[in-house]
Design brief:
binds nicotinamide-adenine-dinucleotide
């Protein structure tokens, strides 16, 4: 979608972090916005802060009904939706053996099923007018695996696979709707506070969580790119119709190394940097 001015973007997780940064970047392009989030207070603050025509909608992406309601409300307000950013997400750290099934399932429900719900709720409408693009927020954790992040890895690899499948399906259907998958490395946002929404408010404990969580917090606090930097790359990616939006070029050699492990049938050997 070469031109964004005058068009309508819907962003899930629009109240904070990368979603809010995208809202500012799209507003600067002259787009109208629908910001959706589970956090009503954050949504109201975001709507105040963004310089654009904004509609807010409280929605939990784990509920398909909420996402259908979001699509209907967006179309009713603006007539159509051009850009959908399935961005809401949570992080979860912990060893597979330490995490309960509910703790694991919560990450899959938000990070993977939330994206699927967005696609199914909006894509039929977007295909009717064709001037449309979807951006699904995965992560470098959808291209590389880490210990202590199995639920997040499984969800984010799922987002990459789902997005690639939809890319091919849109080609088969000769649709002009574009699709991208966003795969940033660590950026400072509220992602490490994601437990605020965790049902039952428990987070996984255990030796693996104790090693991995602080290492990831430190990586994020040393992040070179800001959420605004990532949002600029999203705008560029949508305009250029790039499928893979990999924002941190430093990860590319690690991705190549992983792919070589597979090609050469080697055991996984990417350096995790966890000491
Ligand atoms: N921050 C990073 O380093 C990083 C790196 C790679 C990918 N990501 C991905 O970026 C996306 C945005 O995360 P962020 O870093 O901006 O974190 P964030 O916590 O600052 O923002 C996430 C937003 O999603 C909302 N949210 C959480 N659960 C929800 C639900 N069930 N329904 C609707 N909204 C919900 C939160 O209220 C919050 O406003 C996530 O998908 C995350 O996995 C983040």
């Amino acid at each position: 979608m070469r031109h964004l001015a005058g068009k309508v973007a819907v962003i899930t997780g629009g109240g904070s972090g990368l979603g809010l940064a995208m809202a500012h970047a799209f507003a600067a392009e002259g787009m109208a916005l629908v910001l959706a989030d589970i956090d009503e207070e954050a949504l109201e603050a975001a709507a105040e802060a963004v310089d654009a025509e904004v509609m807010t909608y409280v929605a939990d992406v784990t509920s398909y009904d909420y996402m259908v309601g979001l699509a209907a409300a967006s179309i009713s307000r603006f007539g159509h939706v051009n850009l959908l950013c399935n961005n809401a997400g949570v992080a979860g750290f912990g060893g597979v053996l330490d995490m309960t099934l509910d703790e694991f399932r919560w990450v899959i429900d938000v990070d993977l099923m939330g994206v699927l719900h967005g696609i199914k709720a909006f894509l039929p409408h977007m295909m009717t007018h064709g001037d449309a693009h979807i951006v699904n927020t995965a992560s470098v954790s959808g291209l590389l695996t880490q210990p202590g992040m199995s639920a997040y890895n499984a969800a984010k690899f799922g987002v990459v696979a789902l997005s690639e499948s939809v890319f091919y399906e849109l080609q088969l259907l000769k649709s002009s709707v574009g699709i991208s998958v966003l795969a940033p490395a660590w950026v400072q946002t509220r992602i490490f506070e994601a437990d605020r929404y965790r049902p039952g408010a428990t987070s996984p404990q255990g030796e693996i969580a104790e090693i991995v969580r602080p290492a990831m917090v430190e990586l994020a606090s040393n992040a070179r790119l800001t959420a605004d930097d990532v949002a600029v790359k999203v705008v560029e990616g949508v305009k250029a119709n790039h499928f893979y939006i990999v924002t941190h070029k430093g990860v590319l050699p690690f991705i190549k190394h992983r792919h070589e492990d597979i090609e050469m049938l080697r055991n996984p050997s990417v350096d995790q940097g966890l000491g």
